Amino acid sequence: MKLLIKNMVSLRCKLIVKSELETLGLHYTILELGEVVIKENISGKKQIALKEALNKSGLELLDDRKTMLIEKIKNAIVEMIHYSDNIPKTNYSSYLSKKLNYDYTYLSNLFSEVKGTTIEQFIIAHKIERVKELLIYNELTLSKIAAVLQYSSVAHLSNQFKKITGLTPSSYKKIKHKRLIALENL
């Protein structure tokens, strides 16, 4: 039995879901971001208990088809940008369409209608968050970050970063570095 879970977008969330499943004596075959496949059928009582336990952690068991598809779109994007070593070389619309087996126009319209933002804006927001992470880790140059996240150039990345955050990547990095030094001196 496949269950979709809203807001399950990190490894921490996966651990929470795993723990709740074990507490209820449920066994799973697949546990991925936003999705879990349970070996057995769940009784109404256990499903309610799971739903309540997940809600306490900010997660939500989904049952509406449109909401489930939106979560699949979000999880595919988060997984692609934050947890994949290589972002697909194809454009995002082709990637999402192929991964979810839906026409991209349908996915795009549904996402915009339900979330009030476009898939493109959602992708950009997550790419910028990933850039912030990579800047803080200080393991990659801005050129390498641009290449990893498939920006056409460092200038394109920098312009988009400034548009979203109000800071240039180098300014952001300096501010974060100063905060870390200040914390070390406490």
Describe the structure.
- The longest helix is centred in the middle third of the chain and has 19 residues, at 65-83.
- This protein is α+β, with helices and mostly antiparallel strands and 186 residues long.
- The protein is 65% helix and 9% strand.
- α6 (119-137) packs across α8 and α6 crosses α9.
- The protein contains 9 helices and 4 strands.
- 20% of the residues are buried.
- Among the domains are: 1-63, Alpha-Beta Plaits (2-Layer Sandwich), CATH 3.30.70; 121-184, Homeodomain-like (Arc Repressor Mutant, subunit A), CATH 1.10.10.
- The protein has a 4-stranded antiparallel beta sheet with strand order 2-3-1-4, with helices on both faces.
Percent helix, as a range, is: 55-70%
Spatial ordering of strands, largest sheet: 2-3-1-4
CATH topology of the domain at 121-184: Arc Repressor Mutant, subunit A
Number of strands: 4
Biggest pleated-sheet summary: 4 strands, antiparallel
CATH class of the domain at 121-184: Mainly Alpha
State the separation between the terminal residues, measured CA to CA. Answer: 51 Å
What is Rg?
A: 19 Å
Count of helical regions: 9
Shape: globular
Order of helices and strands: EHEEHEHHHHHHH
Mean pLDDT: 87
**In percent terms, what proportion of residues is strand?**
5-15%
Give the structural class: alpha+beta
State the CATH architecture of the domain at 121-184: Orthogonal Bundle
Short description:
The chain is α+β, with helices and mostly antiparallel strands. Helices cover 65% and strands 9% of the residues.
